[in-house]
Amino acid sequence: MSDAIADAKRALRAELRERRQSMSPQSIATAEDGIRLHLDDLVARLGVRSMSCYLARPTEPGTRAFILAAVERGIRVLLPVSRADGLLDWAVATADGDIGEGLFGVPEPVGELLGPIAVNDVDLLIIPAAAVDESGMRLGWGRGFFDKTIGSMEGCPPVYALVYDSEILVEVPRDLHDQPVTGAVTPARIVEFARAH
């Protein structure tokens, strides 16, 4: 990655992180309600029976209510668990599952791990993002876990990033290893991107 791209990513991530941290608890709760509604619509439209999602940090678009409702409806939800080698293990979400702190302070499930290839059987990937641009390029938080996962999957299913409405940008800095997404789910809408990559 060139220094200019790395610097641009770092600066944009810092701006987006600061914006998220300044949101009120009420705004975050309202956003989670919208995210859940649109994720429910997406799952129903795609006929999803097995999917991956993640446990959101307090300032991220919330996922917990959606995950619990999906599990109650019988959808198999895999949650990521970060590994020191840069790969993700996966654990099955349960209604009463324990949550701990992962390698980088991220909430993660505690329990039986299924290994990195378990995600190959899902119908849909829901992943975090700092921002997504109008072409579907995703800016992650800089550790590369989800880019590696998406890039290594054969027959990758649809991939949707969760962001706030203001985080769909005209363009984000990108490098060769960065992976585009199929769409984005925001509190107000579902956005589909043309697959020109």
UniProtKB/TrEMBL annotation:
Binding site for ATP: 9-13
Cofactor(s) annotated in UniProt: Mg(2+)
GO molecular function, one term: 5-formyltetrahydrofolate cyclo-ligase activity
Primary enzyme class: ligase
Residues making up the signal peptide according to the UniProt record: none
Residues at which substrate binds: 55, 60
Protein EC: 6.3.3.2
Gene Ontology process terms (BP): folic acid-containing compound biosynthetic process; tetrahydrofolate interconversion
Keywords for the protein's UniProt record, in alphabetical order: ATP-binding, Magnesium, Metal-binding, Nucleotide-binding
Catalysed reactions listed for this entry: (6S)-5-formyl-5,6,7,8-tetrahydrofolate + ATP = (6R)-5,10-methenyltetrahydrofolate + ADP + phosphate
Pfam families in alphabetical order: 5-FTHF_cyc-lig (PF01812)
Assigned protein family: Belongs to the 5-formyltetrahydrofolate cyclo-ligase family.
Protein name: 5-formyltetrahydrofolate cyclo-ligase
